[in-house]
Amino acid sequence: MKILQLILIYFLATSYSQSSFAWGVEGHKVVALVAEARLSPEAKQGIDQLLQRDAGGKISDIASWADDMRGNDSVPQISHVVKIPFNARSYSAKRDCSGKYRCVIEGIYQSEAQLGMYAKSKEITPDTQQALKFLVHYVGDVHQPLHAIRETGVMRTLPSRQRWKLHKVWDTIIIRSLHQSPERIAERLLSHPKRIEQYTPEDWAMESHDIAKRVIYGGSYALARSKRPIPLSDGYYKENTEIVDERLLAAGVRLGNLLNSIFK
After folding, report:
1. What is the pTM of this model?
2. CA 104, chain centre distance (Å)
3. Hey, which residues does 245 pair with through a beta bridge?
4. Domains of the chain (ranges plus CATH)?
5. What's the whole-number average pLDDT of the chain?
6. S-S: 102 plus which of 12, 25, 106, 171, CB 3.0-4.6 Å?
7. Which of 128, 120, 124, 133 is nearest to 42 (CA)?
8. C-alpha–C-alpha distance, residues 254 and 120, integer Å
């Protein structure tokens, strides 16, 4: 890939804050649509009961709710990323998930546990409704490569009139470059099914970490740490569409499987 031949240019004197979102509205909806297509009757019923008041029973309608709640003190605040060091070979909860807002992996497990209690008691509370919304979102988040590495892509990219951050390119721009609706993307992904192992949230994070390290940064720690703008090739979006497709599909399949296991 041309990303391996990136040349650093134009020094920037100031650093940039971390992007807060993964996949954007479109990507999160794709993940939820893929999951919806794989839900068992029991899972559909449980979700319908939880969401009937505010989303008509569809997780695709609430897939970005957690982003909308960022900074809202009325709901739990857990980080949407897990900052695994560049050269780490595995996830360490003590090292990677011990900050004030923990990490997205902890968010997945907490939400899963709350939904498991609801599945047994059938008692609907604001907490269980929120747990479902968080779970749908967090599973998508952890499959975005730059949400599972300490170097989250804060540098700008060239050429671009907007001078997007690399993080935003992977969140949103590659998906939007397809000029397809979330429904069409989900339909396309589901029409070419692939065998996707379920594994664990820790494994999902390490998959994302490996893609960020190996593909996005080309194995270069210096590039990952740079604050200089990165020139992207004319074909960069197209070259990386397959990777984005694979991560969206994996997230959707795994989310569907997880919900089915909770509501079985």
Report:
1. 0.90
2. 9
3. none
4. 2-262 (1.10.575.10)
5. 90
6. 106
7. 120
8. 22
